[in-house]
Amino acid sequence: MRALTFEYMGIAGSELAAANAIAKRAGVLEHRVVRLPDLRESSDIPGFRPSGLPPSYIPLRNSIFYAFAASFAEETGATDIVGGHNRDDAKVFADVSPEFFNCLQMAFRKGSRILRGNRVKIVRPLERMRKPAVIRLGATLGVPFELTWSCHRDSEEHCWSCEGCLARERRFREAGMADPLAPSKMEKIT
Ligand SMILES: [Zn+2]
């Protein structure tokens, strides 16, 4: 198993550190960090505010990320490319639909003799699950939630006021789980 992280413009350093820590804990063969300093979230693109999409939206993100993943798969002989998209993502982003991934998988096989020979698959095990169910599944699998990072700001600790932090707090509450990173006052609320 190998892992891939994308370092796009403005990504929180703490998020990269979390990805490293989780990859290490998972014991992956290789954790590759792809540097994409010219790839930006819409909030960092002057005059680009697509309606119905959050400020964290990256134009054509999954087409780009999965192209790198397919290249990595070709290089390493991997047969499965695994993405962690869930049902909540599909409500917002067009590039997480089953139709999109089926087309992409077909394109990769058409465009690479190696991927076609290996019958490469794009696998999305969480696709039908909502985020609280993903958290509960993570708990049963022993996911080290204390190593994860959800904050959009770059600091030592979660700010508990940005979009990422508020969503994390809400999803853990909906899952009926205690977040090991939550400050004590939030634990009392839940
Ligand atoms: Zn935050």
Shape by Cα distribution = globular
Annotation, overall tally of beta strands: 4
**Helix/strand order:** EHEHEHHHEHHH
Which ligands does the model contain, each kind named once? zinc ion
| Class of secondary structure makeup | mainly alpha
Enumerate the spans where pLDDT stays under 50 for 5 or more consecutive residues: none
Mean pLDDT: 93
> What is the straight-line distance between the termini?
36 Å
Summarize the amount of helix as a percent range: 40-55%
Please tally the helical runs, counting DSSP H or I stretches of 4 or more residues: 8
Query: What value does the Rg take, in angstroms?
Result: 17 Å
Question: What layout of secondary structure does this protein have?
Answer:
Elements: E1 2-8, H1 13-26, E2 30-36, H2 61-76, E3 80-82, H3 87-92, H4 98-111, H5 113-117, E4 121-123, H6 131-141, H7 163-175, H8 184-189
Parallel strand pairs: 1-2, 3-4
Helix pairs in contact: 6-7
Bound molecules: zinc ion.
Residues 151-153, 158-159, 162, 164-165 line the site of zinc ion.
